[in-house]
Amino acid sequence: MLNVDVLYKVLEDSQKISAINIIEREEYFDFLKKNIDSRVIKVVSGFRRSGKSFLLKQLVEFLKNKKKINEENIFFINFEHDLLFSHRNLDDLRKLFEIFKENIWRKGKIYIFLDEIQLVTGWESLVRTLYEEGQNNFDIFITGSNSSLLSSEFSSALSGRVIEMTVYPFSFNEFLLYNKLCVQKEKDFYQNKILVKQLFNDYFLYGGIVESFSLEKEFKKNYFESLFRKVLLDDIIKRFKVRDVSAIENLYKFIISDIGSILSPKNIEISLSKTGYKLSVPTLYTYIDYLIKSFALFELKKFDWKLHSVFDGSFKYFLVDNGFLRALNLNKRDIKEKLLENLVFMHLKRQGYEIYYGRDDKGKEIDFLVKNKTKFTKIQVTLELNANNYERELNNFVLASKHNIKGENLLLTMEDNEEKISYKGIKIEKKSVVKWIIGI
Hints:
eight-stranded mixed sheet; five-stranded parallel sheet; 17 helices
């Protein structure tokens, strides 16, 4: 039963913040701070355990300590709280807010934080009402673990009145800061080279989800398996009412095993049918869409060289964090190559770049094409450049050159040595992926 005592407990627990190894994620936190008291609704989306709730808690601390906002003006509800398990509906959400206004709030603007709001059926109605009736009385922040948090109906009804930010697991630079190491210049890198490379190896293998950092290596696999099942259950199965749970789980693991490979729904259908899972192409499209909406998967489209446009027939898929790739990959062959390519993709994704892959009819392929206006940075990724793969890796840059794709050519490896290579008249810069991902 909802009452003021329950609300006090939920408010208290929802705002608790751990003081262990706190780092300020400047880009995200600055976005939130700059939009305090702005009229728009602030939407923070991203994969579970990527730090959305923590950012809101930090913002509450900022409001109380820097802006001197009283606690009685802060309505912060985390809908994953166990006391709200049977109250995730519109009527109870309204009731919670009414209890707050009648028993806690005294006067002044109310700062509303609704965490993991997608768990509440019909939440859009209340948020829209609060926005339209609130004028300058409410400042609204919501988070959710779904990229379709803003339904087309909700977005159109509040067109121009919503701003959204996507939060990702820690970048490598944030992981360094978490481990109390700041590397901003080459001098910092070389002074701490052994430690930086040790930390990079940990990040490369186990990713950037903070909850996993304190776990011993033998427990990390179990952690990522249980986190995926949480996402599968709450963000996909329940939300989209999927009946065939094992089919979508095996689809995800199949895609993980071919991370970085070119896949089409038809090819996936044929491969899955060999393992006993018969899914139609339309169903596959739907299931893949669910995985993408939950941030469990990202889709990379092919760039058509001749037409200079996007080709929608086949895709590459990548994961939000290397920890999932290592823990859930069924095919351990070439795992390090897959981890490296996934790492590079997610680094580019965090920067907000427009990314594609390129491939011609003869099978020559550029791993990533990063668009910047009319130019493309062409990126090849390999563990090392050696006599066995020299021609293959560098020849792929010729592909882009033939089709007049202008821009820099970058070869990323796990090796320390960096050099400028001239290959068939094409200038290629070979860089250490560790230094490149740090930005030095």
